[in-house]
Automatic annotation (TrEMBL):
Top EC class for this record: hydrolase
Alphabetic keyword roster: Metal-binding
Names of required cofactors: a divalent metal cation
GO molecular function: hydrolase activity; metal ion binding
Protein name: Phosphoesterase
Organism: Saccharopolyspora montiporae
PANTHER family documented for this protein: VACUOLAR SORTING PROTEIN VPS29
Coiled-coil regions listed: none
EC number assigned by the record: 3.1.4.-
Domain of life: Bacteria
Keyword Transmembrane helix: no
Similarity comment: family membership: Belongs to the metallophosphoesterase superfamily. YfcE family.
Keyword ATP-binding belongs to the record: no
Any Pfam family hit: Metallophos_2
Length: 163
């Protein structure tokens, strides 16, 4: 199962739409995961129409239209992997221990908010991934997103893509 992981797209505030490379990755993915801060429901609608499966949550910058249709946290099983999605996880210091407590029955947590790519594993084995942002790099050197594969209930080939 091929995944595209994105967050903090901030469309149309930071970009009028997603970069072409991200659209291509979305259209070829089995599942697209968006970890919040869409900004408008129009991007959610377009991703929903152009992808096979979309999993998303609202972020701190998302208004009532998105908060009505999206959860604060999503929990799904993908190819035997227990996946959770949330926008904010708090400060980087202590993140692993905090997420172990918050998501005890999860194998993979996708989050956003910081616009900083993150890939770590907690003491109990929870994988934490933040794809950064494909449209608003802030102080990062590149706009970014992640792809990954799930095979046999395990996460493989996690790749950070720089735009």
């Amino acid at each position: 199962m091929h995944l595209l992981l994105i967050a903090d797209t901030h469309v149309p505030k930071r970009a009028t739409t997603l970069p072409d490379e991200v659209w291509a990755a979305a259209e070829s993915a089995d599942v697209v995961v968006h970890a919040g801060d869409w900004m408008t429901a129009a991007l959610h609608d377009e991703l929903h129409e152009r992808t096979r499966r979309l999993i998303g949550v609202f972020g701190n910058n998302d208004g009532p239209d998105l908060r009505e249709r999206l959860p604060e946290a999503a929990h799904v099983e993908l190819g035997g992997l227990r996946v959770a999605v949330i926008h904010e996880t708090g400060a980087s210091q202590g993140r692993e221990a905090r997420c172990d407590r918050w998501f005890p029955d999860t194998d993979l947590l996708v989050f956003g908010h910081s616009h900083i790519p993150w890939d770590s594993t907690t003491p109990r084995g929870l994988r934490l991934l933040n794809p950064g942002s494909p449209t608003d790099r802030r102080k990062q050197p590149h706009h970014t997103y992640l792809t990954a594969e799930i095979t046999g209930g395990r996460l493989h080939e996690v790749a950070l893509h720089r735009l």
